[in-house]
Amino acid sequence: MKTWGPVYLIAGLITVGASSLTFAAKKSNKVKKTEAVSAVAAVPSNAPKILIGSTMALTGAHSADALAYRDGSKIYFDRINNDGGIAGQHIENIVYDDGYDPKTALENVKKLVNEDKVFSLFQVYGDRDMRAIMPFCENNRVPIIAPISGSLFLRNPVQSNIFVVRTSDMSETAEMVKYLVDVRRIREISLFAEDNAYGIAGKSALQFALNKYKVKRASEGVIRQDLAEIDKAIDDIQAGNPKAVILWSDDKAAVAFIKRSLERKFKPYFLVSSFVTTEEFLRETAKLEADIFASQPVPYIISQDSQFTQGYLKDSKAAGKSPSTAGFEGYLNAAVLVEGLRRIGGKPDRAALTAALESMKTLDLGGVKLSFSPNNHEAIGKSTLVKVQAGMLIYLYYF
Fold it and tell me: pLDDT tens digit string along 334-357?
């Protein structure tokens, strides 16, 4: 049996949007108006540029996330531009708002490619937008770098023009199950999910992870679009007498499920995906007496000693932006794209960019290690599990 070392906690006040981030280490024995945004700080009008384009939900329910990703990447692009750019060229990221509407996203992408003449797409936000634009981008051989999605359809089979930085939903679920089985010694695991594509994907990911440990799912509770079905879902889940429940739903359904479970004196471990840990989720669960855990697709913000993380914290402060998990992911996404551009000398050659990214088999961005290859277009293969407590994300170290 594998022996696990001590568990360490690093506490930080972190949200997905623009709020403060502070750290204090301790050791524990317990386990719609479309807008364009330039990423150039101060560039002469006649300076050569590398144009990239994004379509994101800058307005609407997902705007806090999207704005944080945009701002994080802009901070990194500004840093590169202020240092002279790539081969004397400055990076300009044109960002259009789609309000998380697939039709608008496709219109934005067509405008970016056909009118703005962008070289590559960058940080397209969400599954629905990606599904809408993929056929057009494939037909026009447009690279899509660092889409914000954990879905398997972007990773398997490998899409020749799509390079994902963050880890997958499958990896997030695998880390949850690993923590429960290997660290907490819990095998009685149930599922709460919504009856939609996201919930179905979560169910599949959970089953795959459980099969690895030869664990049978204890029970499941499913709701459609009606939160009034929460009680029935809890009844179905409690029938299996689980010690932990993995939730694959949006933040509102997750909050409703956890609160109602506690009201009914049902207190398992609750585990949610990164999609759920919105500002609203952290706020709504801040005062709950519950064991809530969440997976995160980009783990490296916790490593303050890394040169890359220190660079992000320093650059964020200089830009007047509060550090955040989404902001850090945007900063990291931009760094990956910049490395690809450097390797091709900033030339607007899409095939060359694809080849350059595939050559990054052992990329180390100052303590942040990533890897692409012709057979793997996902740079980070492992997620991080955090504890949600008092509106904070507390990072768990276990090994």
Answer: 999 999 999 999 998 999 999 999
